[in-house]
Amino acid sequence: MPEAAPLGCLAVVGLGLIGSSIARGARRYGLAERIVAIDADEAVRARVLDLGIADAVTGDAAAGAAQADLVILCVPVGAIGPVAAVMAPHLKPGAVVSDVGSVKASVVAAVSPHLPDGIVFVPGHPVAGTEYSGPDAGFSTLFSNRWCILTPPEDAPEAAVERVRALWQGLGAVVETMTPEHHDLVLAITSHVPHLIAYNIVGTAADLEQVTQSEVMKFSAGGFRDFTRIASSDPTMWRDIFLTNREAVLEMLGRFNEDLSVLTRAIRYGDGDALHDLFTRTRAIRRGIVAQGQETAEADFGRARAAEGVPNAG
Amino acid sequence: MPEAAPLGCLAVVGLGLIGSSIARGARRYGLAERIVAIDADEAVRARVLDLGIADAVTGDAAAGAAQADLVILCVPVGAIGPVAAVMAPHLKPGAVVSDVGSVKASVVAAVSPHLPDGIVFVPGHPVAGTEYSGPDAGFSTLFSNRWCILTPPEDAPEAAVERVRALWQGLGAVVETMTPEHHDLVLAITSHVPHLIAYNIVGTAADLEQVTQSEVMKFSAGGFRDFTRIASSDPTMWRDIFLTNREAVLEMLGRFNEDLSVLTRAIRYGDGDALHDLFTRTRAIRRGIVAQGQETAEADFGRARAAEGVPNAG
Predict the structure, then answer these.
(1) Ranges for the Prephenate/arogenate dehydrogenase domain (chains A, B) (predicted)?
(2) Considering only residues 16 to 55 of chain A, which have any Cβ-Cβ distance to chain B shorter than 8 Å?
């Protein structure tokens, strides 16, 4: 693998949870000589200045990006194309553009037509986050031991891919490359459909007439509360994901529904063996996730400890 | 509310996560003069002896229960009726029987016919737990600030209800009473259907041919891993729950499916406003759950901190 040239100027566009975490991490780990923060929202810019996580802060995407060797677009998926169009004519020759969008094929289609010759687009997606949004939600270790997927075009110069890979590795992530289409299928099942069914069951519970919202909240520790975490993620970001990864989401949702029909039938006809069999198989997947360091093995995610500051034992 | 008489002998039947937590808590908080642990599994009995969380340990349900003023059945829902039948003829006059089953109407139907006159059944359900099972998984603070639902028959003597209520309050729980039928509806939406869809999506992901299990595990931090926690809960316990709360689960599953169809249609036809609207509404429910102390407000359940032992900030 060729050694990447040291990164001069890094421009981060959109200083929310992900963008501000990149800026924090790039500074903490010395990954760029200069960090420029670009955000259209004046309140966010003021907050970024206060936090001191960038060398310069601007609302002018064209001027801000003009200085950059690497531009990372950290805006909602639906805004990536329009923002790229504004910046594109002003980019330095040889600049590399990347993004952090949760959908890749539609982002490639939205960005690529705007970029002049000599500017390479290396799409990226760090599989990391929390349910919180905004510049204060970020932290420098967000990407530590998380995966970052890159979906470079086949003809991308290796040096451009390496520039993006080096940033993510510097932030502590493990980098994997695949096609945009495969990315969108993988994320549909590991992220998008899980979010959709979480949003859905929270909505179902909120709308019941036999059970009050107060009861739902009180007795949520039986499982429901787990779903409310991801169902409190940023609405605009998630609207855009479902609008732009429609085909893969509908495909995976179809699988989910087929399987749920089989399970429903097992309940209706009292097929305990079928239920026990599935409930046993699913344990292995969690063990694998814990073994791969993508999840804590602590009971209840360790949240009793997080809430009380005491060990979960008695 | 009448003052409960001090509890003499507490018998805990089934020393798994819940039963062993009750024994630990009863001892720690001095809630009974004597604690008898009853378990049919020799390995569990040996472990309970080692842990020292009961005054006596036996595999003989009849003899063990004969001493008790309060018997708490902590076996899977499908086993509660049979165990009650074995113990019933041997209970002391005036003894109170309770349970911790996640389903109530079917448990009432399974237990009540076996109990002689003078023995009161006060069904209970602590809405608390973790994904782990067995005597080592328990801890004395499991019920702290969690709700415990009691579903006493209308003609239950208040002193009997109070004996059970006092135990749960002593363990730190907040007690609420309702009918068994209402309990089963409330739990269907707050616990049983959430578990079912979690088991289901983990099964769907495991069976895909386009996305490998290895990819599912690697990229699980995008949301999927949250579901694997409850999908690793005890298979026998959960099989029994679905077999015994069939009607309420099917009813709530019907609601879930209706809502998911509407959401699927919004995705198919690109109705971004409908998606954004739901995704905004669902945030309020989580805020309510956090405000009521049933959930941590820490990002990601605080699990980054649980895993690394360091603050989640940078």
Answers:
(1) 8-297
(2) 21, 24-25, 28
Q: Does A244 score more than 80 pLDDT?
A: yes
pLDDT at A273 (0 to 100) = 98
- Whether residues A278 and B203 touch (CB distance < 8 A) is answered with yes
Of A218, A252, A314, the CB nearest to B147: A218
pLDDT of residue A268: 98
Is the confidence at residue A312, as pLDDT, over 50? no
User: Which residues does A62 contact at the CB level (< 8 Å), separation at least 6?
Assistant: A86, A87, A89, A90
pLDDT tens for each residue of A100-135:
999 999 999 999 999 999 999 999 999 999 999 999
User: Looking at the partner chain, which of B190, B196, B302 has a beta carbon nearest the beta carbon of A224?
Assistant: B190
Chain B hits for A205, Cβ within 8 Å: 189-190, 285
Of A137, A224, A255, the CB nearest to B208: A255
pLDDT in tens, A264-284: 999 999 999 999 999 999 998
Interchain contact A145–B (C-beta under 8 A): no
Question: Considering only alpha carbons, which residue of chain B is nearest residue A312?
Answer: B139
Residue B28: list chain A partners with CB under 8 A: 314
DSSP state at residue A136 = G
Residue B280 Cα, gap to closest chain A Cα (Å): 6
Are the C-beta atoms of B189 and A196 separated by less than 8 Å? no
Instruction: Report helix angle A246-268 to A193-207, nearest 10.
Output: 60
Establish how many alpha carbons lie within 13 A of residue A4's alpha carbon, considering only the half-sphere containing its beta carbon.
21
A150 touches chain B (CB under 8 A): no
The percentage of chain A sitting over the pLDDT mark of 90, rounded to a whole number, equals 89
What is the mean predicted confidence (pLDDT) over A198-214?
A: 94
pLDDT tens column, B250-289:
999 999 999 999 999 999 999 999 999 999 999 989 999 9
Q: How far is CA A14 from CA A22, A102, A132, A239, A305, in A?
A: 11, 15, 15, 17, 33
Q: Which of residues 159-218 of A touch B (CB under 8 A)?
A: 176, 185-187, 189-208, 210-211, 213, 215-218
pLDDT tens digits for B188-246?
A: 999 999 999 999 999 999 999 899 999 999 999 999 999 999 999 999 999 999 999 99
- Nearest CA to B276 out of A235, A194, A246, A231 is that of A235
Distance (Å, rounded) from C-alpha A14 to C-alpha A20?
8
Domains annotated on chain B, with CATH: 9-178 (3.40.50.720), 182-294 (1.10.3660.10)
pLDDT band at B61 (very low <50, low <70, confident <90, very high): very high
The candidate with the shortest Cα–Cα distance to B247, out of B149, B104, B127, is B104
